[in-house]
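Tokens as discussed.
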């Protein structure tokens, strides 16, 4: 595939900013090149602009070469860069499959890029025929979210692969919740598809939402464009150090995922006994979408008790639905007590 033809011409021409730490990467004794304060404080020097040590660790963890990894200030940074790299404002379009994560639309609106929407089917799976017929020559990026937010389910892998084979633009698969169904990641397919970008994040199962670290995995050629366009030192040194240390706690993360899976099953059982809840949708993530008879009343009743869930009832395809994150055993039983009363 000719990837260059998908990149905005100004980005191909762009001469990126060359920061001091980018221009000289070797070991030196005296650094007088970056106008830093020389007195040691632990944070007085600029960080590695390409975060090599952290990428090395992520590379081992994910079995993906470092040159196929981009790290951003949350996956939201990766979404924004995708819009800026591939989509010419006022000309190109992205495609999203609602109900889905809202940031694709927001980033497109900020970038003045049109959004084609093709609804997921009744099982919240991609409608292949409708997608194929809605694609235009200006459709540059197709955003797929699996497991999907707010529905919670995985997209059928054979359908995702069919779309990858068919669509000649960029296919983004947002795997923010993949650690809750880790066997289903598309990472092993990365080497087969130059136009595939997989996004993951440390904000969910890894428990580091406040740290803001998102990952994008793609061909070295595409990652080269991310690096060309990103802010020079986009991941600060505190994040780099903290994450490097925390990633050694993979077992703890897996244990918590197991615990949350068990809690999710308990919530499903409890919701199924409630007359107010007419449907509990299948979930491969750490949250449940439930359809209620009176979603707005349940939502405000919970708020009055200080229990905050997400009211998704205004989203297309989610009428009457609340999205409920699986909490600790204690939090879940507080929720259930109030919903039963
Ligand atoms: C599907 C999806 N993608 C991305 C994100 C954002 O992730 P990050 O915290 O890495 O920006 C979220 C957050 O809720 C999400 O639900």
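Sequence:
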């Amino acid at each position: 595939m000719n990837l260059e033809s998908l990149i905005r011409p100004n980005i191909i021409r762009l001469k990126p900013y060359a920061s001091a730490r980018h221009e000289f990467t070797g070991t030196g004794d005296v650094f007088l090149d970056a106008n830093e304060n020389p007195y040691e404080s632990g944070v007085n020097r600029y960080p590695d602009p390409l975060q090599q040590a952290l990428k090395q660790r992520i590379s081992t963890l994910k079995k993906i070469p470092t040159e196929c990894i981009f790290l951003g200030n949350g996956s939201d940074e990766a979404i924004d860069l995708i819009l800026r790299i591939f989509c010419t404002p006022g000309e190109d379009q992205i495609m999203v499959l609602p109900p889905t994560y809202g940031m694709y639309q927001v980033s497109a609106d900020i970038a003045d890029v049109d959004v084609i929407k093709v609804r997921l089917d009744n099982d919240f799976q991609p409608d292949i025929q409708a997608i194929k017929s809605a694609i235009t020559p200006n459709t540059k990026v197709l955003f797929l979210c699996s497991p999907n937010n707010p529905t919670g389910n995985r997209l059928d892998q054979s359908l995702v692969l069919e779309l990858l084979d068919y669509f000649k633009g960029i296919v983004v698969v947002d795997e923010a919740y993949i650690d809750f169904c880790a066997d289903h990641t598309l990472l092993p397919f990365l080497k087969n598809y130059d136009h595939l970008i997989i996004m993951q994040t440390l904000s969910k199962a890894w428990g580091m939402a406040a740290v803001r670290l998102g990952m994008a995995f793609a061909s070295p050629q595409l990652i080269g464009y991310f690096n060309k366009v990103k802010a020079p030192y986009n991941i600060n040194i505190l994040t780099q150090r903290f994450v490097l240390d925390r990633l050694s706690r993979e077992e703890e993360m897996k244990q918590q995922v197991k615990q949350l899976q068990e809690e999710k099953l308990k919530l499903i059982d409890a919701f199924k006994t409630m007359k107010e809840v007419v449907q509990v949708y299948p979930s491969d993530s750490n949250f449940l979408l439930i359809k209620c008879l009176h979603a707005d009343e349940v939502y405000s009743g919970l708020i009055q008790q200080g229990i905050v869930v997400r009211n998704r009832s205004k989203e297309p395809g989610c009428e009457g639905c609340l999205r409920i994150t699986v909490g600790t055993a204690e939090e879940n039983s507080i929720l259930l007590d109030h919903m039963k009363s």
